[in-house]
Design brief:
heterodimer, A: 337 residues, alpha+beta, Methyltransferase, Methionine Synthase (B12-binding Domains), Chain A, domain 1, Phosphatase 2c, domain 1, 2 domains, 9 helices, B: 111 residues, alpha/beta, Transcription Regulator spoIIAA, 3 helices, globular, disordered C terminus, Anti-sigma_ant (chain B), Anti-sigma factor antagonist (chain B), anti-sigma factor antagonist activity (chain B), phosphoprotein (chain B)
Chain lengths: 337, 111
């Protein structure tokens, strides 16, 4: 340390000498470089002032009276800066530590989500889920049984960030505790609701939609717990309908029945499930309309489902200046023609 | 985004909380700090006037649910009034209109 101090001293003496001889741009440039160096070495402002005084006194042993004392005053002033600087340093280190921890948690959270979409004959599935920050409050889940029946869930945990992410693990483990055989959507939500109701803070809740698709009969059964309505595209009529399932959010009432709805999916029809991060997309002109989303889907409808969701996300992200305000999840499930 | 609240005491028991602005993850704590104490008074009748609220997100809904539970624990009542279409839709979709009393009428009383 003492050695590096000496080195800095010599370096500064050279820079100052050169600058005093000729006040050049180059000299100022060296000063800037030196400032980077002292920052790196975590040298406080008052130490730099003290270094300046040392060098100055070497150059001019007969400083006018008062000059030395004036530096003492300046040193005292810089002391305050030095304290603030050290605090800043320690905060910066702490932030780095926290960030590293959050990154670990975010990576772990990724393992809660399916790493691949099940392949089912006759079905084209697209999924995209993007958190607004590192941790997500959106959850989705796919399960396929031996008869090519697919169960899919989308859930949105109130709020976002870490609390929402912690809550997600509860949903994940609850869903995983069910057998792979298809559960009826209404009954499934009733079960999940009981778990959530007992384990969640009084000002939290979860919205969820669960659907199951039987690829033998092309029936889509679904039920919802206060989740943002999706869309159902009817190919024969070329129209989008709202896909809403009435039901209260999870975690509020212990014994709740969830009504089950049924649709017969014709070739070319598709189901769109989404989180409110999609519909609550806000641009400079205010919130986008739900029709804007169906218009976007329509634009890319000729593409495979995964490409549709990718394009819709890109367009909506762009509309918000590439700054998501809420977690975004969009799922499309299409019966192939 | 800003949020402002004002408590109007109609009587010993009846309190109106007028809220203005947007209720989201950032402003929700302020709403909570102003709303919850009202619901903690035994037998209170709390009315929240949302006429001047343009937007509520899910965190905001959570505050009302928390306040409702608190009111139930203190034998108090909670009622919401003056919801715009967007806000009302949120309560309908989440099914929370089943558990929270929401006035359909205008906000005459709250004025």
């Amino acid at each position: 340390m003492a050695e590096s101090k000496e080195l800095l001293h010599d370096q500064y003496a050279n820079i100052l000498r050169a600058y005093l001889e000729e006040q050049s741009e180059q000299g100022l440039y060296y000063a800037q470089q030196f400032s980077k160096r002292v920052l790196e070495e975590q040298i406080s402002p008052e130490e730099v002032v003290s270094l300046h005084l040392e060098v100055l006194e070497e150059f001019f042993p007969d400083l006018p009276k008062g000059a030395h004392e004036s530096f003492e005053l300046l040193l005292e002033v810089m002391m305050g800066y030095g304290l603030a600087y050290r605090e800043h340093q320690s905060l910066r280190d702490k932030t780095k530590e926290l960030e590293a921890e959050i990154n670990v948690a975010a990576n772990m959270q990724q393992t809660f989500l399916p790493d691949e979409i099940p392949h089912v004959n006759g079905l084209d599935v697209g999924v995209l889920s993007v958190p607004a920050s590192k941790m997500s409050g959106d959850y989705y889940h796919f399960v396929k049984d031996d008869h090519d029946c697919v169960g899919l869930a989308i859930a949105d945990i109130i709020g976002k960030g870490i609390p929402a992410a912690l809550c997600m693990s509860m949903i994940k483990y609850t869903m995983d505790s069910y057998p792979e055989q298809r559960l009826q959507p209404g009954a499934l939500l009733e079960n999940v609701n009981r778990v959530v109701e007992q384990n969640i803070a009084s000002n939290m809740f979860i919205t969820m939609m669960y659907g199951s698709y039987d690829s033998r009969t092309h029936q889509f059964n679904y039920a919802g717990a206060g989740h943002e309505p999706g869309f159902y595209y009817k190919a024969a009529e070329d129209t989008f309908e709202e896909l809403h399932a009435k039901g209260i959010v999870l975690g509020i009432k212990r014994n709740t029945d969830y009504k089950e709805y049924q649709l017969t999916v014709e070739p070319g029809d598709f189901v769109v499930l989404l989180s409110d991060g999609v519909t609550e997309c806000r641009t400079d002109d205010g919130f986008i309309e739900r029709e804007a989303i169906t218009r976007l889907i329509r634009t890319y409808q000729h593409l495979p489902a995964q490409e549709i969701v990718n394009h819709v996300f890109y367009e909506l992200e762009r509309a918000q200046g590439f700054q998501l305000r809420d977690d975004f999840t969009l799922i499309i499930l299409r019966r192939n023609v | 985004m800003n949020l402002s609240t004002e408590v109007i005491e109609k009587s010993d028991k009846k309190k109106i909380l007028k809220v203005a602005g947007e209720v989201d993850a950032y402003t929700a704590p302020e709403l909570k700090a102003n709303l919850n104490p009202l619901t903690e008074e035994e037998g209170a009748e709390v009315v929240v006037d949302l006429t001047e609220v343009s937007y509520i997100d899910s965190t905001g809904l959570g505050i009302f649910i928390g306040a409702l539970k608190s009111a139930e624990n203190h034998d108090a009542t909670l009622r919401l009034t003056g919801l715009n279409e967007r806000v009302k839709r949120l309560f309908t979709i989440t099914g929370l209109d089943e558990v929270i009393t929401i006035d359909d009428e205008n906000t005459e009383e709250a004025k």
